[in-house]
Design a protein that fits this description.
single chain; 445 residues; alpha/beta; Alpha-Beta Plaits; Aminopeptidase; 2 domains; four-stranded antiparallel β-sheet; 13 helices; 14 strands; 18% strand; globular; binds zinc ion
Protein backbone atom coordinates (compact mmCIF):
# COMPACT_ATOMS: atom_id res chain seq x y z
CA UNK A 1 0.00 0.00 0.00
CA UNK A 2 1.16 3.46 -0.81
CA UNK A 3 1.14 5.36 2.47
CA UNK A 4 1.47 8.68 0.74
CA UNK A 5 -1.98 8.60 -0.84
CA UNK A 6 -4.47 10.82 0.92
CA UNK A 7 -8.00 9.68 1.67
CA UNK A 8 -10.27 10.83 -1.14
CA UNK A 9 -12.45 13.52 0.39
CA UNK A 10 -9.64 15.01 2.40
CA UNK A 11 -7.33 15.03 -0.58
CA UNK A 12 -10.04 16.80 -2.55
CA UNK A 13 -10.40 19.36 0.20
CA UNK A 14 -6.67 19.97 0.21
CA UNK A 15 -6.67 20.54 -3.53
CA UNK A 16 -9.58 22.94 -3.22
CA UNK A 17 -7.76 24.78 -0.49
CA UNK A 18 -4.66 24.98 -2.59
CA UNK A 19 -6.66 26.53 -5.40
CA UNK A 20 -8.32 28.98 -3.05
CA UNK A 21 -11.77 27.70 -3.96
CA UNK A 22 -12.87 27.29 -0.35
CA UNK A 23 -11.64 28.77 2.88
CA UNK A 24 -12.01 25.69 5.04
CA UNK A 25 -13.03 22.09 4.75
CA UNK A 26 -16.69 21.62 5.56
CA UNK A 27 -17.00 19.69 8.79
CA UNK A 28 -20.49 20.71 9.71
CA UNK A 29 -20.18 22.51 13.02
CA UNK A 30 -16.40 22.59 12.87
CA UNK A 31 -14.03 24.52 10.68
CA UNK A 32 -11.20 22.04 10.25
CA UNK A 33 -8.23 23.15 8.25
CA UNK A 34 -6.28 20.27 6.73
CA UNK A 35 -3.48 22.68 5.89
CA UNK A 36 -3.10 23.93 9.45
CA UNK A 37 0.36 23.41 10.90
CA UNK A 38 0.78 20.67 13.48
CA UNK A 39 3.90 19.61 15.36
CA UNK A 40 4.41 15.94 16.01
CA UNK A 41 6.66 14.05 18.40
CA UNK A 42 7.07 10.44 17.29
CA UNK A 43 9.59 7.66 17.44
CA UNK A 44 12.12 8.14 14.66
CA UNK A 45 11.59 4.75 13.07
CA UNK A 46 7.84 5.18 12.96
CA UNK A 47 8.09 8.62 11.44
CA UNK A 48 10.61 7.67 8.78
CA UNK A 49 8.71 4.57 7.74
CA UNK A 50 5.42 6.45 7.51
CA UNK A 51 6.64 9.56 5.72
CA UNK A 52 9.75 8.61 3.81
CA UNK A 53 9.56 11.51 1.42
CA UNK A 54 8.64 14.02 4.09
CA UNK A 55 10.36 17.32 3.35
CA UNK A 56 9.29 19.43 6.32
CA UNK A 57 11.31 20.44 9.33
CA UNK A 58 12.44 17.37 11.21
CA UNK A 59 14.57 17.69 14.31
CA UNK A 60 16.06 14.71 16.12
CA UNK A 61 15.26 14.52 19.82
CA UNK A 62 15.53 11.98 22.61
CA UNK A 63 13.16 11.34 25.44
CA UNK A 64 14.11 10.76 29.06
CA UNK A 65 14.55 7.06 28.35
CA UNK A 66 16.98 7.72 25.52
CA UNK A 67 14.58 6.72 22.76
CA UNK A 68 15.26 8.35 19.41
CA UNK A 69 12.41 10.69 18.55
CA UNK A 70 11.70 13.26 15.91
CA UNK A 71 9.97 16.58 16.30
CA UNK A 72 8.44 17.48 12.97
CA UNK A 73 6.40 20.36 11.68
CA UNK A 74 3.77 19.23 9.18
CA UNK A 75 0.17 19.82 8.06
CA UNK A 76 -2.88 18.37 9.75
CA UNK A 77 -3.77 16.25 6.70
CA UNK A 78 -0.35 14.55 6.83
CA UNK A 79 -1.30 13.04 10.18
CA UNK A 80 -3.43 10.62 8.17
CA UNK A 81 -0.33 9.07 6.65
CA UNK A 82 1.34 8.83 10.00
CA UNK A 83 -1.73 7.36 11.68
CA UNK A 84 -2.34 4.90 8.88
CA UNK A 85 1.20 3.61 9.13
CA UNK A 86 0.91 3.16 12.88
CA UNK A 87 -2.46 1.42 12.55
CA UNK A 88 -1.94 -0.71 9.47
CA UNK A 89 1.77 -1.50 9.55
CA UNK A 90 2.70 -1.28 13.23
CA UNK A 91 -0.80 -2.51 14.09
CA UNK A 92 -1.48 -0.34 17.10
CA UNK A 93 -3.48 2.70 18.19
CA UNK A 94 -2.01 6.17 18.87
CA UNK A 95 1.68 6.36 17.98
CA UNK A 96 2.58 10.02 18.41
CA UNK A 97 1.90 13.22 20.31
CA UNK A 98 0.59 16.25 18.38
CA UNK A 99 0.83 19.95 19.23
CA UNK A 100 -0.49 23.22 17.84
CA UNK A 101 2.87 25.02 18.03
CA UNK A 102 6.53 24.09 17.81
CA UNK A 103 7.11 25.79 21.16
CA UNK A 104 4.63 23.47 22.85
CA UNK A 105 6.20 20.42 21.24
CA UNK A 106 9.67 21.55 22.31
CA UNK A 107 8.42 22.20 25.85
CA UNK A 108 6.82 18.74 25.89
CA UNK A 109 10.12 17.05 25.00
CA UNK A 110 12.09 19.26 27.39
CA UNK A 111 9.72 18.57 30.28
CA UNK A 112 9.58 14.80 29.76
CA UNK A 113 8.94 13.41 33.21
CA UNK A 114 8.69 9.77 32.15
CA UNK A 115 11.45 8.75 34.53
CA UNK A 116 9.41 10.18 37.36
CA UNK A 117 6.40 8.36 35.96
CA UNK A 118 8.35 5.12 36.00
CA UNK A 119 10.05 5.62 39.33
CA UNK A 120 7.47 7.61 41.26
CA UNK A 121 7.46 6.88 44.98
CA UNK A 122 4.08 5.28 45.19
CA UNK A 123 1.80 4.26 47.96
CA UNK A 124 2.06 0.58 48.67
CA UNK A 125 -0.30 -1.09 46.25
CA UNK A 126 -2.09 -3.67 48.31
CA UNK A 127 -5.00 -6.04 47.90
CA UNK A 128 -7.07 -5.81 51.04
CA UNK A 129 -10.65 -5.14 50.01
CA UNK A 130 -11.62 -8.59 48.80
CA UNK A 131 -14.91 -8.56 50.62
CA UNK A 132 -16.07 -5.43 48.84
CA UNK A 133 -14.63 -6.22 45.41
CA UNK A 134 -15.80 -9.83 45.35
CA UNK A 135 -19.29 -8.55 46.03
CA UNK A 136 -19.09 -6.32 42.97
CA UNK A 137 -17.72 -8.74 40.39
CA UNK A 138 -20.87 -10.84 39.79
CA UNK A 139 -22.80 -7.65 39.09
CA UNK A 140 -20.95 -6.92 35.85
CA UNK A 141 -23.63 -6.91 33.16
CA UNK A 142 -22.78 -7.92 29.62
CA UNK A 143 -26.06 -6.42 28.30
CA UNK A 144 -25.26 -3.09 29.97
CA UNK A 145 -21.81 -2.90 28.38
CA UNK A 146 -23.23 -4.05 25.06
CA UNK A 147 -25.92 -1.37 25.12
CA UNK A 148 -23.36 1.39 25.66
CA UNK A 149 -21.12 0.11 22.88
CA UNK A 150 -24.15 -0.13 20.63
CA UNK A 151 -25.21 3.43 21.33
CA UNK A 152 -21.78 4.99 21.01
CA UNK A 153 -21.05 3.17 17.75
CA UNK A 154 -24.40 3.80 16.04
CA UNK A 155 -25.91 7.04 17.37
CA UNK A 156 -23.49 9.06 15.25
CA UNK A 157 -21.53 8.25 12.08
CA UNK A 158 -18.34 8.94 14.02
CA UNK A 159 -16.90 10.49 17.18
CA UNK A 160 -14.09 12.18 15.27
CA UNK A 161 -12.59 15.10 17.17
CA UNK A 162 -13.23 17.58 14.36
CA UNK A 163 -16.86 16.73 13.63
CA UNK A 164 -20.17 17.84 15.09
CA UNK A 165 -20.81 14.21 16.12
CA UNK A 166 -17.53 14.17 17.96
CA UNK A 167 -18.81 17.12 19.96
CA UNK A 168 -22.19 15.54 20.69
CA UNK A 169 -20.81 12.25 21.99
CA UNK A 170 -19.05 13.69 25.07
CA UNK A 171 -22.25 15.44 26.13
CA UNK A 172 -24.07 12.11 25.98
CA UNK A 173 -21.32 10.43 28.01
CA UNK A 174 -21.39 13.16 30.64
CA UNK A 175 -25.18 12.93 30.96
CA UNK A 176 -25.07 9.16 31.07
CA UNK A 177 -22.46 9.15 33.80
CA UNK A 178 -24.30 11.80 35.81
CA UNK A 179 -27.56 9.87 35.55
CA UNK A 180 -25.82 6.85 37.10
CA UNK A 181 -24.76 9.03 40.02
CA UNK A 182 -28.42 9.80 40.69
CA UNK A 183 -27.80 13.11 42.37
CA UNK A 184 -25.12 12.03 44.83
CA UNK A 185 -23.67 15.19 46.31
CA UNK A 186 -20.13 13.80 46.33
CA UNK A 187 -20.19 13.03 42.59
CA UNK A 188 -19.77 15.67 39.91
CA UNK A 189 -19.05 15.73 36.19
CA UNK A 190 -17.55 18.31 33.91
CA UNK A 191 -16.38 18.89 30.38
CA UNK A 192 -12.65 19.57 30.19
CA UNK A 193 -12.07 22.03 27.37
CA UNK A 194 -8.65 23.46 28.21
CA UNK A 195 -7.01 21.83 25.18
CA UNK A 196 -5.87 24.14 22.42
CA UNK A 197 -5.64 21.51 19.69
CA UNK A 198 -8.59 19.23 20.48
CA UNK A 199 -10.75 20.87 17.81
CA UNK A 200 -13.22 21.93 20.48
CA UNK A 201 -13.96 18.33 21.45
CA UNK A 202 -14.14 18.22 25.25
CA UNK A 203 -12.98 15.42 27.48
CA UNK A 204 -15.39 14.24 30.18
CA UNK A 205 -14.33 13.96 33.82
CA UNK A 206 -16.56 12.46 36.48
CA UNK A 207 -15.28 12.79 40.04
CA UNK A 208 -16.22 10.74 43.08
CA UNK A 209 -15.01 12.82 45.97
CA UNK A 210 -12.70 10.94 48.31
CA UNK A 211 -13.21 11.05 52.05
CA UNK A 212 -10.10 11.25 54.27
CA UNK A 213 -7.59 10.78 51.40
CA UNK A 214 -9.28 13.12 48.96
CA UNK A 215 -6.03 14.70 47.77
CA UNK A 216 -4.87 11.36 46.39
CA UNK A 217 -6.38 10.76 42.96
CA UNK A 218 -7.15 7.50 41.17
CA UNK A 219 -7.96 7.75 37.45
CA UNK A 220 -9.76 5.28 35.20
CA UNK A 221 -9.89 6.44 31.59
CA UNK A 222 -10.37 5.68 27.92
CA UNK A 223 -10.73 7.76 24.78
CA UNK A 224 -14.10 8.80 23.46
CA UNK A 225 -13.11 9.79 19.91
CA UNK A 226 -12.99 7.54 16.86
CA UNK A 227 -11.35 7.68 13.46
CA UNK A 228 -11.40 5.66 10.26
CA UNK A 229 -9.98 5.46 6.79
CA UNK A 230 -13.35 6.26 5.18
CA UNK A 231 -14.55 9.81 4.65
CA UNK A 232 -13.75 12.90 6.68
CA UNK A 233 -15.35 15.35 9.07
CA UNK A 234 -19.06 14.82 9.68
CA UNK A 235 -19.10 12.30 6.86
CA UNK A 236 -16.40 10.05 8.23
CA UNK A 237 -17.72 6.53 8.78
CA UNK A 238 -15.98 5.58 12.03
CA UNK A 239 -18.15 3.52 14.36
CA UNK A 240 -15.21 2.73 16.64
CA UNK A 241 -17.08 0.01 18.52
CA UNK A 242 -13.97 -1.63 19.91
CA UNK A 243 -11.76 1.46 19.55
CA UNK A 244 -12.80 2.80 21.92
CA UNK A 245 -16.55 2.65 22.57
CA UNK A 246 -15.72 -0.59 24.37
CA UNK A 247 -13.40 1.20 26.77
CA UNK A 248 -15.95 3.91 27.53
CA UNK A 249 -18.66 1.27 27.96
CA UNK A 250 -16.42 -0.69 30.32
CA UNK A 251 -15.71 2.41 32.38
CA UNK A 252 -19.43 3.16 32.43
CA UNK A 253 -20.15 -0.29 33.81
CA UNK A 254 -17.55 0.13 36.57
CA UNK A 255 -19.15 3.45 37.48
CA UNK A 256 -22.66 1.97 37.36
CA UNK A 257 -21.78 -0.71 39.89
CA UNK A 258 -19.92 1.76 42.11
CA UNK A 259 -23.04 3.91 42.23
CA UNK A 260 -25.47 1.01 42.72
CA UNK A 261 -23.30 -0.14 45.62
CA UNK A 262 -23.09 3.32 47.16
CA UNK A 263 -19.30 3.09 46.96
CA UNK A 264 -17.49 5.82 48.89
CA UNK A 265 -13.74 5.85 48.16
CA UNK A 266 -11.22 7.20 50.62
CA UNK A 267 -9.23 8.54 47.67
CA UNK A 268 -10.80 10.71 44.99
CA UNK A 269 -11.71 8.54 42.01
CA UNK A 270 -12.00 10.12 38.56
CA UNK A 271 -13.49 8.59 35.43
CA UNK A 272 -12.17 10.20 32.26
CA UNK A 273 -13.32 9.99 28.63
CA UNK A 274 -10.49 11.61 26.69
CA UNK A 275 -10.94 13.64 23.53
CA UNK A 276 -8.78 13.52 20.40
CA UNK A 277 -6.65 10.48 21.26
CA UNK A 278 -6.60 9.28 17.66
CA UNK A 279 -4.82 12.40 16.45
CA UNK A 280 -1.94 12.44 18.91
CA UNK A 281 -3.22 11.82 22.47
CA UNK A 282 -4.31 15.45 22.68
CA UNK A 283 -7.07 15.34 25.29
CA UNK A 284 -5.23 13.15 27.79
CA UNK A 285 -2.03 15.13 27.36
CA UNK A 286 -3.84 18.39 28.13
CA UNK A 287 -5.33 16.90 31.29
CA UNK A 288 -2.13 15.23 32.46
CA UNK A 289 -0.12 18.39 31.86
CA UNK A 290 -2.69 20.41 33.76
CA UNK A 291 -2.62 18.02 36.69
CA UNK A 292 1.18 18.13 36.73
CA UNK A 293 1.20 21.92 36.61
CA UNK A 294 -1.21 22.04 39.53
CA UNK A 295 0.87 19.58 41.54
CA UNK A 296 -1.94 17.08 41.85
CA UNK A 297 -1.16 13.79 43.52
CA UNK A 298 -2.29 11.09 41.10
CA UNK A 299 -1.50 7.71 42.64
CA UNK A 300 -2.55 5.50 39.74
CA UNK A 301 -4.03 5.71 36.24
CA UNK A 302 -5.68 2.79 34.47
CA UNK A 303 -6.17 3.05 30.72
CA UNK A 304 -8.88 1.13 28.86
CA UNK A 305 -8.36 1.29 25.11
CA UNK A 306 -10.18 -1.58 23.37
CA UNK A 307 -11.65 -4.19 25.68
CA UNK A 308 -14.08 -6.30 23.64
CA UNK A 309 -12.24 -8.18 20.88
CA UNK A 310 -11.22 -11.75 21.52
CA UNK A 311 -8.69 -12.86 18.95
CA UNK A 312 -9.36 -16.44 17.82
CA UNK A 313 -5.65 -17.22 18.07
CA UNK A 314 -5.17 -15.78 21.52
CA UNK A 315 -3.65 -18.03 24.13
CA UNK A 316 -4.58 -15.79 27.07
CA UNK A 317 -7.71 -13.87 27.99
CA UNK A 318 -6.13 -10.48 28.53
CA UNK A 319 -2.68 -8.90 28.45
CA UNK A 320 -0.97 -6.32 30.62
CA UNK A 321 0.95 -3.65 28.71
CA UNK A 322 4.46 -3.35 30.06
CA UNK A 323 5.78 -0.27 28.24
CA UNK A 324 4.87 3.41 28.76
CA UNK A 325 3.88 2.28 32.24
CA UNK A 326 5.03 2.38 35.83
CA UNK A 327 6.52 -1.05 36.68
CA UNK A 328 5.08 -1.04 40.18
CA UNK A 329 1.62 -0.31 38.83
CA UNK A 330 2.06 -2.95 36.11
CA UNK A 331 2.81 -5.46 38.85
CA UNK A 332 -0.29 -4.29 40.69
CA UNK A 333 -2.43 -4.90 37.59
CA UNK A 334 -1.03 -8.42 37.45
CA UNK A 335 -1.65 -8.92 41.17
CA UNK A 336 -5.25 -7.75 40.77
CA UNK A 337 -5.74 -10.19 37.94
CA UNK A 338 -4.23 -13.03 39.93
CA UNK A 339 -6.36 -12.24 42.97
CA UNK A 340 -9.69 -11.72 41.24
CA UNK A 341 -9.76 -13.19 37.72
CA UNK A 342 -7.35 -16.13 37.86
CA UNK A 343 -9.51 -17.97 40.41
CA UNK A 344 -12.33 -17.79 37.85
CA UNK A 345 -10.17 -19.60 35.30
CA UNK A 346 -8.95 -16.63 33.26
CA UNK A 347 -5.36 -16.27 32.07
CA UNK A 348 -3.09 -13.32 31.33
CA UNK A 349 0.12 -12.54 29.46
CA UNK A 350 2.34 -9.51 28.85
CA UNK A 351 2.45 -7.22 25.86
CA UNK A 352 3.89 -3.90 24.74
CA UNK A 353 2.51 -1.26 22.41
CA UNK A 354 5.29 1.18 21.45
CA UNK A 355 5.79 4.92 21.75
CA UNK A 356 2.73 7.02 22.63
CA UNK A 357 0.38 4.11 22.02
CA UNK A 358 -2.52 5.29 24.15
CA UNK A 359 -3.53 7.81 26.78
CA UNK A 360 -1.59 6.23 29.63
CA UNK A 361 1.54 7.46 27.82
CA UNK A 362 0.34 11.03 28.39
CA UNK A 363 0.20 10.41 32.13
CA UNK A 364 3.54 8.64 32.21
CA UNK A 365 5.19 11.46 30.29
CA UNK A 366 3.74 13.95 32.78
CA UNK A 367 5.33 12.03 35.65
CA UNK A 368 2.38 10.00 36.94
CA UNK A 369 2.10 6.23 37.46
CA UNK A 370 -0.07 4.77 34.69
CA UNK A 371 -0.70 1.34 33.17
CA UNK A 372 -3.09 -0.49 30.86
CA UNK A 373 -4.88 -3.78 30.40
CA UNK A 374 -5.17 -5.00 26.81
CA UNK A 375 -7.92 -7.10 25.22
CA UNK A 376 -5.37 -9.36 23.53
CA UNK A 377 -3.94 -9.56 20.01
CA UNK A 378 -4.74 -6.77 17.61
CA UNK A 379 -8.28 -6.24 16.33
CA UNK A 380 -7.78 -6.32 12.53
CA UNK A 381 -10.72 -4.00 11.77
CA UNK A 382 -9.41 -1.18 13.97
CA UNK A 383 -9.94 2.26 12.38
CA UNK A 384 -12.16 0.91 9.61
CA UNK A 385 -15.87 1.16 8.87
CA UNK A 386 -16.12 -2.42 10.14
CA UNK A 387 -15.19 -1.69 13.74
CA UNK A 388 -18.77 -2.53 14.72
CA UNK A 389 -20.44 -4.51 17.48
CA UNK A 390 -21.45 -7.15 14.93
CA UNK A 391 -17.83 -7.72 14.00
CA UNK A 392 -17.05 -8.13 17.69
CA UNK A 393 -19.46 -11.04 17.82
CA UNK A 394 -22.56 -8.99 18.64
CA UNK A 395 -21.93 -9.18 22.37
CA UNK A 396 -19.76 -7.63 25.07
CA UNK A 397 -18.64 -10.82 26.75
CA UNK A 398 -14.93 -10.16 26.43
CA UNK A 399 -15.28 -6.66 27.91
CA UNK A 400 -16.72 -8.11 31.10
CA UNK A 401 -13.19 -9.31 31.97
CA UNK A 402 -11.67 -5.83 31.94
CA UNK A 403 -14.79 -4.42 33.61
CA UNK A 404 -14.11 -6.74 36.54
CA UNK A 405 -10.47 -5.68 36.56
CA UNK A 406 -11.60 -2.07 36.53
CA UNK A 407 -13.76 -2.71 39.57
CA UNK A 408 -10.83 -4.34 41.34
CA UNK A 409 -8.56 -1.43 40.45
CA UNK A 410 -11.08 1.14 41.65
CA UNK A 411 -11.91 -0.69 44.85
CA UNK A 412 -8.37 -1.55 45.88
CA UNK A 413 -6.74 1.73 44.91
CA UNK A 414 -9.66 3.99 45.78
CA UNK A 415 -10.04 2.02 49.00
CA UNK A 416 -13.18 2.00 51.07
CA UNK A 417 -14.50 4.65 53.41
CA UNK A 418 -15.94 3.34 56.65
CA UNK A 419 -19.55 3.92 55.74
CA UNK A 420 -21.01 3.17 52.34
CA UNK A 421 -23.66 5.47 51.00
CA UNK A 422 -27.23 4.37 51.09
CA UNK A 423 -29.65 6.07 48.76
CA UNK A 424 -30.63 8.77 49.41
CA UNK A 425 -27.12 9.84 50.38
CA UNK A 426 -26.43 11.80 53.58
CA UNK A 427 -25.65 15.38 52.60
CA UNK A 428 -25.42 17.20 55.91
CA UNK A 429 -21.87 16.77 57.21
CA UNK A 430 -20.80 18.90 60.14
CA UNK A 431 -19.02 21.99 58.87
CA UNK A 432 -15.25 21.71 58.79
CA UNK A 433 -15.34 17.96 58.43
CA UNK A 434 -12.20 17.38 56.39
CA UNK A 435 -13.42 14.01 55.20
CA UNK A 436 -16.01 15.72 53.04
CA UNK A 437 -14.14 18.71 51.74
CA UNK A 438 -14.33 19.42 48.06
CA UNK A 439 -11.36 18.47 45.87
CA UNK A 440 -9.56 21.06 43.81
CA UNK A 441 -11.17 20.59 40.43
CA UNK A 442 -9.81 21.80 37.12
CA UNK A 443 -11.16 25.25 36.30
CA UNK A 444 -14.42 25.12 34.46
CA UNK A 445 -14.49 26.65 31.00
ZN1 LIG B 1 -7.37 4.01 17.59
ZN1 LIG C 1 -7.78 3.49 20.78
Amino acid sequence: MNMRILAGPLAAACLLLASGAVSAHDHGAMAFDPMAPVYVVAERGTFQAALRDFSGQVSPRRDALGRQLVLAGMREHQLEDLSRHVHEVERRCGGYFAFATRAEAEAFVASDASLRGFRAALPAYAIEHQGMVNGWLPQVSEPAIRATIQHLSTAWPNRYYASSHGHAAPLWIRDQWLSLAAGRSDVSAELFTACNNCGGQPSVILTIQGTDLADEIVVLGGHLDSISNSGSGDHMNAPGADDDASGIATLTEVLRIAMVEGYRPRRTVMFMAYSAEEVGLRGSRAIAQRFAAEGRNVVGVLQMDMTNYRSPGSTSDIRVMTDNSNPQLVQFLKDLFDAYLAPLGYTRSDSSCGYACSDHASWTQAGFPAAMYDEGPFFPLLHTTNDTLDRLGGNAQHATIIARLGLAFMGELGREAKARLQPPPPITPPSGDSRLRRPTLPPRP
